[in-house]
Specification:
Number of helices: 8
Strand content: 25-35%
CATH topology of the largest domain: TIM Barrel
Shape: globular
Oligomer: single chain
Number of domains: 3
Mean pLDDT: 96
Largest sheet: 8 strands, parallel, barrel
Bound molecules: alpha-D-galactopyranuronic acid
Low-confidence stretches: 445-450
Distance between the termini: 42 Å
Structural class: alpha+beta
Number of strands: 34
CATH class of the largest domain: Alpha Beta
Length: 575
């Protein structure tokens, strides 16, 4: 993977980014016509790239093909795609390798016995929506099509380490960690192979053994717990990271972890035993001209801006973000909320009960946990956003995802963002209650009978108490107002002016900070983002204009307001 550090010193990795041949397939005839054996035409594009950013293809929703040649010295090859929007089919020299559904998580194919020489890799990406797609067509972001993130090929030899989850428990005083590695091993050779397998965390060797695997055999191995004393904790102020190295005679996998404990107690969120107020923003991984194929140097810039704003957290609304971005969050001590793209408004009650949809959502959760497990910055897993959480189908889906994350997701708080505060039936499956509300922008005066934010917060505290959940912290996961960059007024605070947006956010943030139930807030949203071309009401320019920065990251008045408040809140909490 393209990380902020090298994942391999031994394994050979070749980047497959850069020039690929590209051709749209509007009638979806490519496969029947044998395009997997060679595209009949095409133009050169530079991968990663999303075709809606090409001139003339903004509105193209459908299938399109990518093809490139590459040279290999041969052997067992692993092709890795970090993100293809949304469904992908892949061929090597016209032989189908397989397919993958879901735009924001990685997938791979291992191919044995590839001959030395030049080969052709072909990808068909399909961005269409259907009754079972995640997200559904009705969505408030631009669901671009194409190859969104990096592609590369690895040469595997002998016993290889495909994955390594570093799990740990901490002593009561948080000074000692008992660590275990959960290794996914495979034998890339065509014969039985024996290898030394060693795992270290920082300087400490936590496993050293010998493993024998038959030709092509795979093994999941959990090592015995080993104590590491006097560890340095990972925190926002001191984000200490440990290098985790798994190596065999012929292969290696390098990752990082940080030791920290996140928990809830008596209505508070605690990080390493200390109360933390979450002061954050919602951020789409979107930049004009690139979309989700987000340039890495601009990721650092976004984090610099969020830190300047006084944030200690960001929500990756509404899908898993590039691992490079999460690496930077680990390094900078920013807390991250990672979620899957089940963006509710588009899902009917019936769709929420569709077994294919539920299974696709579960696969997305599995892939998110598989690839992001070791990141200390991720303290929240989000299961879904604004689904019909007052229905039985939503309940069953949430229960399924919650039990998976509880068992496999490590030390994280699990939540869903609800816009049904007064009749949501899924709160039992959330460690923190997350609410999306837009008083001051959309007309929500009838929700819960509350005439305003103050009334709403009071009503919700009462409901939380009636549910017996007063120890669950509440997060205001979305709130905000639209503002067109450069639109001002003198006194009237008209909708769409920067002044109006700033006023709404100031009112909300002060209330939330002072509310005994609310332990965090994520402003909607960090910056303007392109949205579905079909979005109507309130989406001038086909953008969601609720950013406190515009889409090029120019600050609106609200930026300075939020910054002033976040700095003040931080001082108060730390006093
Ligand atoms: C919802 C949703 C966001 C965005 C927002 C808005 O809460 O979760 O993705 O669409 O509303 O701007 O209305």
């Amino acid at each position: 993977m393209k990380r902020s550090f090298d994942e391999h010193r031994v394994r050979r990795v070749a980047d497959l980014g850069g020039a690929w041949k590209f051709l749209t397939d509007p009638c979806d005839l490519g496969e029947a016509e044998g395009w997997q054996n060679g595209l009949p035409a095409g133009e050169s594009v530079s991968v990663p790239t999303l075709w809606n950013n090409e001139v003339g293809l903004l509105q193209y929703e459908g299938a399109a093909w990518y093809e490139r040649q590459f040279y290999t010295a041969g052997g067992t090859l692993r092709f890795v795609f970090e993100s293809v929007m949304t469904a992908a089919d892949v061929w090597l020299d016209g032989e189908r390798l397989g397919s993958h559904y879901g735009g924001f998580t990685a997938f791979d194919f291992i191919v044995r016995d590839v001959k030395a020489g030049e080969h052709t890799l072909t990808v068909r990406a399909d961005s269409r929506f259907d009754a079972q797609s995640i997200p559904q067509k009705r969505v408030d972001w631009y669901n671009f099509g194409g190859i969104a993130r990096d592609v590369w090929v690895e040469t595997l030899e002998g016993i290889c380490v495909l994955n390594n989850h570093l799990t740990y428990t901490l002593s009561d005083d948080l000074s000692t960690a008992t660590v275990r590695a959960v290794l996914s091993l495979c034998n890339a050779d065509e014969r039985e192979t024996t290898s030394r397998v060693a795992v270290s965390v920082g300087e400490k060797l936590i496993f050293d053994g010998s493993i024998t695997l038959g030709a092509g055999e795979a093994l999941s191995l959990t090592t015995d717990g080993v104590e590491m004393k006097d560890i340095k904790l990972w925190s926002c102020e001191e984000p200490t990271l440990y290098t985790v190295t798994a190596s065999t005679d012929t292969d290696d996998l390098i990752d990082r972890t940080g030791f920290r404990l996140v928990e809830v107690g008596e209505g508070r969120i605690l990080l390493n035993g200390r109360r933390v107020e979450l002061r954050g923003v919602n951020r789409h991984e979107d930049y004009p001209g690139f979309g989700f194929a987000f340039p890495k140097n601009l990721m650092k810039r976004d984090i610099d801006i969020m830190l300047d704003l006084g944030c200690n957290t960001v929500r990756g609304s509404h899908y898993p973000n590039a691992k490079y971005f999460v690496d930077l969050l680990d390094e900078r001590g920013m807390l991250f909320w990672s979620e899957v793209p089940i963006w509710g408004v588009g899902f009917s009650e019936e769709t929420l009960g569709d077994p294919t949809v539920v299974a696709r959502g579960l696969a997305m959760h599995r892939e998110m946990v598989r690839d992001y497990y070791n990141h200390p910055s991720i303290i929240i897993w989000g299961m879904h956003n604004e689904i019909k959480s007052e229905t039985e189908n939503a309940y069953a889906m949430t229960e399924r995802y919650y039990s998976f994350l509880r068992e496999a997701g490590g030390n994280r708080l699990i939540t869903h963002a609800s816009n049904h505060p007064m009749n949501d039936i899924c709160f039992a499956f959330s460690d923190i209650i997350s609410l999306n509300m837009y008083y001051g922008w959309y007309d929500q005066t009838s929700v819960g009978g509350a005439p305003d934010w103050e009334g709403f917060l009071e009503n919700f505290r009462a409901r939380r108490a009636a549910l017996g959940m007063s120890d669950k912290p509440v997060i205001m996961s979305e709130f905000g107002a639209g503002a067109l960059y450069g639109c001002h007024d003198h006194f009237d605070r008209i909708r769409w002016s920067e002044e109006y947006q700033s006023d709404v956010l100031e009112h909300c943030l002060r209330l939330f900070h002072d509310d005994p139930a609310v332990e965090g807030f994520y402003v909607w949203q960090f910056c303007n983002t392109r949205t579905s071309l079909e979005a109507g009401r309130d989406r001038a320019r086909t953008f969601n204009n609720k950013g406190i920065l515009d889409e090029y990251r120019n600050p609106k008045i609200a930026y300075h307001t939020v910054k002033r408040l976040y700095e003040q809140f931080k001082k108060e909490i730390e006093a």
